[in-house]
Write the structure tokens for this entry.
Amino acid sequence: MLALVRKSESSLHMRMYAVALDELRARWRDGNHFVGKDDIVRWSELSGLSVTDVLDKLAVELASDFFVGFLGWEFVDNAANALFAALIDLSGDEKLEWPTDFDEFYLAFDYSEMRGPKDRELIRAFLAKHSQLTG
């Protein structure tokens, strides 16, 4: 029974990522790089995750898709910046716990804007701590 609950939770989390990624891609195609706090809250409600966990989960999934070559550096960097702006808007909420995984992900891409690398090595150390895709 516990395995079934975990599988159900995992599928909700992946559905949240799929919805968020679809929305981000559609916006980027239209030239709209804005992500608002309402988006993060909606994704939180969809997945049953806290806002902090949504941002941490998005960080790992975006990094994983970048690492395997599914998403490009420019898209993920812009998404990281837009998500960080939404986080700043949310940070006035006293209930918000700072998403440390997301912060680490954001800082890796922020660093790469000036110093590189802009390839999968950029995120290898992050994924080594948070995912199984670093092979």
